[in-house]
Amino acid sequence: MGDWFQTIVDTEVSPGEAQGLAANMLDWLIADGFVSAERTDCVLGADAGHAPGTRYAEAVEDPDPELVNVWSNGLHVSVGRTVFDAGQGEPSAVTCPHCATELPLVDECWTLIDERWDRFRAAVGSWADGDDEPVACASCGRTAPVHTWIWADDHFAFGHLGFTFWNWPTLRAEFVADLSRRLGGHRTVLLEGKL
C-alpha cells in the first residue's frame, strides 16, 4: 500500500515572498473550509498539518468519506528552498530549456540510464543547499540551471513554497487553477506521488 500525495509547487516565488504568501494562502484555505485551522499530527514528514475542512470535498474530483479516518490526511505547507520529488520511480525524461530536446533518462524497461542521469544527479541533490549548478545539454551543448529544465511526468519541481495534500482524492483542476491564480499567477507544478 502506501501514502499518496499531491503537491502544488510555486516555482517562481522568491525566498523573501514565500512565508507571507504561504500565510495568505493558508488563510484562504481555512476561511473557505478546505482545511481546518487547528494544526494536528495528520501529515507525513512534518510535525503538524491541517486536516481536511468542512468543504474539502469541493477541492477534489471524487470525495472519499473515509478520508477523515486516515491518519495522514492533511495539508502540509513547505516554505524554504526545496527539491519537491514525486516519490516512487525514476524521472523518465528531461527537456532542455534552450533547444527543447527531450533527453530520456530511462530505457524501454524503465531502467535508469546512469550515464544520462549522472548529468543531473549532483545538481538536483545540491539545489536545496543553495547551489544553482548548471547542466549541459547533450544536444545543443548549452548549460542551464537544473531548476530550469522541464521534468517529464513532473517528477521534480524546484521552489520555495509547496502545498502537499496527503491521501486526498485527485484535486479538481479548477481548485488547482484557483490556488495558482491566488499565488499571483506564478508558474506552478502539480506533483503526484506515492511513498
UniProtKB/TrEMBL annotation:
This is Uncharacterized protein.
